[in-house]
Amino acid sequence: MVISNKPLQFIIAILIACLPILGFSNTPSENTALQTETTAVANEVAPKAEETSEIKEQIKEVIGHHVLDGHEFSLFEYDGEHVGFPLPIILWDNGAHFFSSSEFHHGEAVVQSNGNYYVLHHEKIYKSDATGKILVEEIKTIKDGKEVVTEKELQPIDLSITKGVFTIMIVALLMFLLFTSLAKSFAKNGGISAGAGRFFEPIVLYIRDEIAIPNIGEKHYKKYMSYLLTIFFFVWFLNIFGLTPLGINVTGNIAITFGLAIITFIITTLTANKNYWKHVFWMPGVPVPMKIILAPIELLGVFIKPFALMIRLYANIFAGHVVLMSLIGLMFIFKSWLGSSLSFMLSFAISIIEILVALLQAYIFTMLSALYFGSAVEEHGLETEDGHH
Asked: Quick one: pLDDT at residue 152?
């Protein structure tokens, strides 16, 4: 039997015409209930999303304050009150200014000193007026033939004892007492250490036998041993302090790693022999045109080495702090036993790894410094001017 196409087309047209009617087939009460339920869900979701966004901002602020240096040593916050102790503020602004960081009241108060006013904002001290408004200086420059005026916030020279500086002093005192005791016990007991020195003596011997002698040589290693030991334990202890809940991030501060790298650079430069500089400016064993090409490259390498030291230590420690704090912050975002438990376990695992990283970064900094010292005091190259060994 053959079915005509016209009835089929008519039925399809009727169905299409009835679709709008079927779509509104619910009663007004049902539509109202559905809209009310949807509105209620939306009103319930909106505060939750807003609360989550607020928590994320708070976590970012906490991480930012954790990795920054501080003008007071704040241990923790309890019931809205900061528990810790203030540190001395030392400013140079047309004269010296001395006062306690407690006068800032955690950045909420304006401090007057010798007729000047100062405020603390994001751990930076600015000059202000009596109301706390930061003073600015207008800087006029010419750009594309037009005068452009930019504003710069006025800041005094800050020489304060910050949290990082205070931690460095503590580590320096700890190292002095520890290794003074180790040296005395070593001399008193006929070359056998006692007390806590028994733990650190193998590390000292390892740095001497596995880092200093192989990279510098038996003839010159002794004059570098004091620095290598100091830099290893200094970086290691600061890294360990950074893993505590005290909010210390000294080696994650690029100013500190810059200072350490500069010391290595100065020692390398001042103790380098003529063979070292000959390899920098007039590479032996290669044709003269290549010597001219290699000279600026080798000279650039002299400055790249301390830069690599600085960035390697800073980036690893800084990134470790940010990752660990971010994982801890996820517990406050998930707010569930599963998500928070996973965040806690992952944070714990990363903390264990960071203990290894703290030791590894101290070892790498010491090893690279020894390599640079070894290249500086190498007495002869592998090749002479004529290319023979």
From this structure: 85
Checking if the pLDDT of 173 tops 90, the result is yes
Tokens matching residue 227: 């620095």
Task: Give 140: exposed, middle or buried? Use CB within 10 Å, 0-12, 13-18, 19+.
Answer: exposed
Chain centre distance of CA 212: 28
Distance between CA 176 and CA 182 in Å, rounded? Answer: 10
Cα 199 to Cα 143: distance, rounded to the nearest angstrom: 63
Task: From residue 356, give the alpha-carbon distance in Å to each of 25, 78, 89, 250, 254.
Answer: 68, 32, 35, 17, 21
Cβ 332 vs Cβ 57: under 8 Å: no
List C-alpha distances in Å: 34 to 24, 27, 30, 48, 331: 13, 11, 6, 22, 35
C-beta of residue 283 within 8 angstroms of C-beta of residue 295: yes
Phi, psi of 353 (to 5 degrees): -65, -35
Please give the Cα distance from 119 to 109 (Å, whole number): 7
- Supply the DSSP string of 85-127, one letter for each residue: EE-EEEEESSSEEEEEGGGGTTTTS-EEETTEEEEEETTEEEE
CA–CA dist 23, 238 (Å, integer): 70
Taking Cα atoms as reference points, which of 208, 227, 228, 206 lies closest to residue 218?
208
- pLDDT greater at residue 253 or residue 51: 253
Residue 272, SS3? coil
Map tokens 């690029």 to a residue: 254
First to last CA, the chain: 104
Distance CA 53, CA 58 (A): 9
Reported residue count of the chain is 389
CA-CA distance, 230 to 310, in Å (whole number)? 17
Burial class (CB in 10 A: 0-12, 13-18, 19+), 365: buried
Q: What does the alpha-carbon distance between residue 290 and residue 286 come to, in Å, rounded to a whole number?
A: 6
Specify the DSSP class assigned to residue 2. Answer: P
Place of tokens 């990752």: 323
Q: Residue 66: what pLDDT? A: 67
The token pair that represents 270 in the structure block:
């001042």
Mean pLDDT of the residues in the chain: 80
Higher pLDDT, 157 or 50: 157
